[in-house]
Amino acid sequence: SQLGWKFYDADDYHSPANKKKMAEGTPLNDEDRMPWLYALHDILRREDSSTQDAILACSALKKVYRRVLVSGASAVESNQPEQPGENAALKILFVHLDGPMEIIAGRLEKRSGHFMPPKLLKSQFDTLEPPSAPENFIAVSLEKSLPEIVLEIEHAVFEG
What we know:
The protein has a single domain (6-159), classed as Rossmann fold.
């Protein structure tokens, strides 16, 4: 990125089984997504511990998924005793790219060679729990131009 931050695309970290399931048109469920989200949390924690800022593009559709990105397994396995300092929550600003299904569908149609067929989009909208307080997030309209979107995110990161 132009900020000198590392960029990760969460889609690159899906298991072969998850990719196959999506390619066949079957939506993933929580069970499919949890190991993927744990792996993404580990990547973010590693970058954080080396003081590297990072951007993760990820369809973290549910509140619990976003909690896992912030806190790892302890977000769902709350009966585990935490080691002091070990699982301090990561400081993450979630950017909710918000827009009508038609706009997103149009963009998906132009994306070639991706394992997720556009017909799975509806299931993602059905699953979506948009972020809300007290989550640390901003919502940015997908109907804006890319430079406007980037500016809005940069403003929130550096002046928010």
